[in-house]
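> example.struct
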């Protein structure tokens, strides 16, 4: 019986601590700023990855064209 009371008390403390944590996180503006920076960083990285794939394709096409012209000039 003492064990049940102890577990119930611990559980109540943990629930209260979690609730306080969520309330404090909601009030904290620094947490929101950090989230905003992370979202901007994710957007920038997405744009860089998408742009680099397109750029790599353009560079590959240009190098193939140059290689073809060199091979034609040599032959």
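> example.seq
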């Amino acid at each position: 019986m003492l064990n049940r009371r102890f577990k119930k008390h611990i559980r109540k403390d943990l629930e209260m601590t979690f609730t306080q944590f969520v309330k404090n996180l909601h009030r904290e503006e620094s947490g929101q700023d950090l989230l905003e920076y992370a979202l901007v960083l994710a957007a920038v990285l997405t744009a860089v990855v998408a742009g680099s794939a397109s750029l790599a394709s353009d560079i590959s096409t240009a190098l193939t064209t140059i290689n073809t012209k060199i091979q034609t000039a040599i032959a």
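> remarks
The chain has a mean pLDDT of 78.
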